[in-house]
Amino acid sequence: MQEVTKDMSIGEVLRMNRGTARIFMEFGMHCLTCPHATAESIAEAGGVHGINVDELVHQLNEYLAEQQ
């Protein structure tokens, strides 16, 4: 399993597993198809949205681990 990092883009994570969209949405990141979703890292997008990026990455990785 590939692990999600803060340096990955939202688009990269969505390509890994579309089910991760729910987690992004729960964190208030609703623009999953906008150009920034492929251009910005999760860390950059999280900073704009004022979210806890470490917790987001943790939850994404937990979700992906459960899908194995």
Please give a structural write-up.
The protein is mainly α. The protein has a single domain (10-66), classed as SP0561-like. It is 57% helix and 0% strand. The protein contains 5 helices and no strands. The longest helix is centred in the C-terminal third of the chain and has 14 residues, at 53-66. The N and C termini lie close together (8 Å). The mean pLDDT is 93.
Please outline the helices and strands:
Layout: H1 10-16, H2 21-26, H3 36-39, H4 42-49, H5 53-66
Distance between the termini: 8 Å
The mean pLDDT is 93
What fraction, in percent, of the residue positions are helical?
55-70%
Return the CATH topology: SP0561-like
* Category by helix and strand content: mainly alpha
Which ranges are low-confidence, i.e. pLDDT below 50, for 5 or more consecutive residues? Answer: none
Number of helices: 5
Indicate the proportion of strand residues: under 5%
Major sheet: none
By CATH, the superfamily comes out as SP0561-like
Kindly state the number of beta strands.
0
Q: What is the count of distinct domains?
A: 1
Topology as a string of helices (H) and strands (E): HHHHH
- The CATH architecture category equals Orthogonal Bundle
> If you compute it from the alpha carbons, what radius of gyration comes out, rounded to the nearest whole angstrom?
11 Å
User: What shape does the CA trace take?
Assistant: globular
The CATH class is identified as Mainly Alpha
Keywords:
mainly alpha
Quick summary of this structure?
The chain is an all-alpha fold and about 70 residues long. Helix content is about 55%, strand content about 0%.
